[in-house]
Design brief:
This protein has 446 residues and is of the alpha/beta class. 33% of the residues lie in helices and 25% in strands. Among the domains are: 2-75 and 203-279 and 395-445, FAD/NAD(P)-binding domain (3-Layer(bba) Sandwich); 101-187, no CATH class. The structure holds flavin-adenine dinucleotide (FAD).
Length: 446
């Protein structure tokens, strides 16, 4: 069987690996000039680092197995993480509160002790809810207020949901929040309730390059800088792929492209299915990598719960990794998710505005987090933006989840938009790839 895999991110590479292992002839098409997809790389002090911050959690066994399988397991390190919230209270005073372990909640001053205890108990118990489908049509805010109390929502959850979902958080299903609580409960150390995060020293790039080398060794052709222009079908059966290399015919085609890209280039799809694809939207993100001559604050991950600050998180990479890995530089990300430009003038400005200007504007707010901050601490600024950062989920999302098989025989899709209520991540990409090839194999046998 001859198969084309579209996209050389984690999902596409895993699909290609599984198909090659089963003896199929595989060609991977990738638009950019590197493998790894969203785990794209930049360099600081001569060391590769992700353009968009990346780490893995201890319970993510699919990505851990892949890291071992391709021979980079010796570079994976588990490092103690620390989390904080920058919170501004009603009087206008702002400060950083530690939020690494559930115990930190007990000292979180903006809430009354009674409310803290209620939120703590609810956070411990909710992961035991087993049927998330019941939470799919309930707004996250409504569910949080009911289970954890109003002040847990206004002081902690609403600002945190804004960090990830911007203004669209109002339409977020409770199932998404439940899945995050369940995930964090699985990744905590039972003894000290702290959290360790995994990182491949020297960058995740090494994982994807080693995986691509392994695939080439198995005979897989990886065509970089070769965007697919059209997916050719007669509406019933797959025919082939058109790229700058011309038209090639395949028995099976697997797309791991963002759904809107797939919808645009796949021909003759039944209108009802095409409409479902078109309704699938994604959040955008801007990440700015700063190198600094000193640290801004002590946490690895700082949620910024202050509406006067235009970014939602400050992630100090070198509060997790040693800065010796980056020629002694301190490295930090400023991150902000936002919905597609049609949602608001602000989203439009972030989507189309000059990235350097946006990044420079954000720097002007760091003094609010650390009053001593001075622009001269920053030695370089590298901003990145993508329009397909994460699927935009909304009420009833579970019922809209797209299946792997499309109505066109021999045409399949595996994307971040199909993992709800779980959150997108490299491990989920591996799982998607494995599950998709299992589904294909069953279909090919029948
Ligand atoms: C800001 C941010 C932070 C993240 N943090 C983490 C984290 O800490 N831990 C974690 O595990 N995950 C994290 N993720 C998520 C993780 O990066 C993704 O879940 C994962 O990389 C998705 O892989 P994928 O292969 O499904 O899709 P993608 O990586 O999007 O791959 C799709 C590929 O298709 C290619 N393509 C597009 N159009 C075409 C075309 N016409 N022809 C050919 N190729 C095309 C693209 O270039 C891309 O390479 C983060 C993501 C973002 C944006």
């Amino acid at each position: 069987m001859r198969a084309a895999v579209l996209g050389a991110g984690v999902t596409g590479l895993v699909v290609a690996r599984e198909l090659a292992k089963r003896g199929h002839e595989v060609v991977v098409y990738e638009a950019s000039d590197a493998v790894g997809g969203l785990v794209m790389s930049h360099e600081v002090g001569g060391t590769p680092i992700e353009a968009f911050y990346h780490h893995i959690f201890t319970h993510e066994h699919h990505i851990r197995a892949l890291i071992d399988a391709v021979g980079v397991g010796d570079k994976l390190e588990w490092l103690p993480s620390s989390v904080g919230i920058f919170h501004r209270d009603a009087s206008g005073a702002g400060r950083v509160w530690p939020f690494t372990t559930p115990r930190d909640l007990l000292t979180f001053g903006p809430m009354r002790l009674r409310d803290r205890l209620r939120m703590g108990a609810a956070s411990v118990l909710t992961p035991y809810v087993t049927d998330w489908r019941k939470l799919d049509d309930i707004p996250a805010g409504e569910w949080i207020i009911k289970t954890m109390g109003a002040s847990a929502y206004t002081e902690i959850w609403e600002p945190m949901l804004r960090v990830k979902w911007s203004e669209v958080h109002a339409n977020l299903p409770a199932a998404w929040v439940w899945a995050r609580l369940a995930q964090r409960a699985r990744s905590r150390d039972r003894k000290d309730m702290g959290e360790k995060l995994g990182y491949i020293r020297g960058g995740f790039k090494q994982l994807y390059e080693a995986l691509a080398d392994e695939l080439r060794g198995r005979g897989v052709k990886i065509r970089l800088a070769t965007p697919v222009r059209r997916i050719l079908t007669d509406g019933r059966r797959i025919d082939g792929i058109e790229s700058d290399d011309g038209v090639e015919h395949f028995d099976e085609v697997v797309s791991t492209l963002p759904v809107p890209v797939f919808a645009k280039i796949a021909e003759n799809l039944p209108p009802e299915y095409a409409a479902r694809l078109e309704a699938t939207e994604y959040m955008w993100v801007i990440c700015v990598i700063l190198t600094l001559d000193r640290s801004v604050q002590p946490a690895y991950w700082l949620n910024v719960a202050d509406r006067t600050i235009p970014f939602g998180a400050l992630i100090e990479h070198t509060n997790l990794l040693p800065r010796e890995d980056y020629a002694g530089h301190h490295v930090a990300y400023l991150g902000r998710y936002f919905p597609p430009p049609s949602y608001s003038p602000e989203a439009e400005r972030l989507a189309t505005g000059d990235l350097e200007e946006i990044a420079e504007g954000w720097l002007g707010h760091l003094y609010k987090i650390n009053p001593e901050f001075d622009r001269s601490w920053v030695t370089s600024v590298a901003p990145f933006r993508t329009s397909y950062a994460a699927p935009l989920v909304s009420l009833g999302q579970g019922k809209r989840r797209l299946p792997f098989a499309t109505p066109v025989e021999g045409l399949w899709i595996a994307t971040m938009a199909q993992i709800y209520p779980d959150d997108r991540g490299q491990s989920e990409g591996v799982r998607l790839g494995l599950d998709l090839v299992k589904a294909m194999s069953l279909d090919l046998r029948s």
